[in-house]
Design goal:
four-stranded mixed β-sheet; eight-stranded mixed β-sheet; flat; 414 residues; 17% strand; alpha/beta
């Protein structure tokens, strides 16, 4: 199954980007995790509500990829570790050129920010640093990169635009295609601005507005405020929350998640990724289980650490936030899970007598049509017709959304 879109993780040195990635490396997890493809790319697992719960067949749901537990499904999604973020990246500082070249492949970004304020702009140890500055200069680097490339050629772009009588969308898409843009992205950018003047009359101020709007449209960003358990984090969180759209912010502690998963694997605690609950042997015995769930007994050091994590992270914030980071990225992209099946009545994907359902799931972007899904899954194969749930034929121009046209069967032929 196709695994795009691609989510890029960015962050200055020592912000905790590597820890955030490592906190998801449990590929056997039923909830989260990612499997390494190469040093920069990996497969994460996004939590979604599976269609099997909607149709009361959860006990027969067996995904080919990921897993499904009682209707809560983990779906593969590709992640990109975008390295080399330092101020001046657009001028080639650090790994600037490579950083920006990698960045252009991403459909959305997760910006891991050290909200403790204990690392400066270049990732060196300090105290009292304002992490809101990191959010501002990441954006300014991307905007400066795109604007610089555009202005270097603006004279010739303008002359060609007039000569061929192109539309603004056509001209800009010719320039922005290198960032992984599409004509629809450019069109949405210009629609939101509602510009009156023709492209050949754009001022520098108008070009700035276009580049900023395009950046927002092409690189929607989740702000992952990491190290929330540090004593200095609260004041920085409060400041950033006033400056940023709260719907783009996730509070997290990657180190806490790594520790909890490690203790779970070693049999000391019972913990489900993404939740606020941790049970120790003593907890389960107190709840009436004389065997303590078969868990090992904790030493005093680890017992104290778990209690501190409960108080400082889980009970205060509701989770470590790591699983929620991917969920937020999917939310801002408006991703829709679609379930291709062979039989839209039984939801089987294999042989006609198979009792296993919803083997596959793909993630498509908001506003995708049934035809878009067909091309993503079937490629250039000729499609005779498409069926939705219950065997009803579906028109190719119909939109897909959760609960509507999200269970599809493609009949090949002419």
């Amino acid at each position: 199954m196709p695994r795009d879109p691609l989510i890029g993780l960015v962050g200055k040195p020592s912000a905790g980007k590597s820890s955030t990635l490592n906190s998801l490396t449990d590929a056997t997890s039923k909830v989260g995790g990612f499997t390494t493809i190469d040093p920069q790319r990996a497969i994460g697992y996004l939590q979604i509500d599976c269609a099997c719960a909607r149709h009361n067949v959860s006990e027969r749901c067996r995904p080919n990829y990921g897993s499904c537990d009682g209707g809560r499904r983990s779906v593969p999604i590709e992640l990109l570790d975008v390295a080399g973020l330092v101020p001046g990246a657009h001028q080639g500082k650090g790994l600037g050129n490579k950083f920006l070249d990698d960045l252009r492949h991403a459909d959305a970004l997760i910006h891991v920010v050290d909200v403790s304020g204990t690392t400066d702009a270049e990732g060196k140890n300090t105290r009292g640093y304002d992490p809101s500055a990191d959010i501002a200069w990441l954006r300014s680097e991307i905007v400066a990169w795109i604007r610089g490339n555009l202005m270097d050629k603006w004279g010739s772009i303008r002359r060609r635009h007039i000569a061929v009588k192109a539309t603004a969308v056509e001209t800009l898409q010719n320039q922005f295609s290198g960032y992984g843009s599409t004509s629809s992205v450019v069109a949405r950018t210009l629609d939101k601005l509602g510009l009156k003047e023709p492209l050949e009359e754009w001022s520098d101020e108008t070009i700035d507005r276009v580049v900023n709007a395009f950046t927002d449209e092409k690189f929607p960003t989740v702000i992952a405020l990491n190290k929330i358990d540090h004593p200095d984090a609260d004041k920085n969180i409060a400041k950033i929350a006033k400056m940023q759209d709260p719907n783009t912010i996730v509070l997290c502690s990657a180190v806490a998640e790594i520790f909890l998963r490690k203790m779970t694997k070693q049999g000391y605690i019972r913990y489900i990724e993404g939740s606020e609950f941790v049970d120790t042997r003593e907890d389960l015995i107190a709840d009436g289980d004389p065997d303590g769930g078969g868990l090992k007994e904790l030493d005093e050091k680890n017992r104290n650490r778990i209690e501190n994590l409960k108080d400082m992270v889980l009970y205060r914030f509701g989770s470590t936030g790591v699983v929620q980071v991917l969920s937020k990225a999917a939310e801002i992209l408006g991703l829709v899970p679609v379930f291709p099946v062979r039989n839209t009545t039984t939801f089987a994907s294999g042989a006609g007598d198979s009792k296993v359902v919803f083997r596959d799931c793909v993630l498509v972007k908001k506003n995708s049509t049934v035809a878009d899904v067909a091309r993503k899954i079937m490629g250039d194969a000729p499609i005779a017709y498409i069926e939705g749930a219950g065997g009803t034929r579906v028109a190719e121009d119909q939109a897909v959304s959760v609960g509507k046209n999200d269970i599809l069967s493609f009949r090949v032929g002419k």
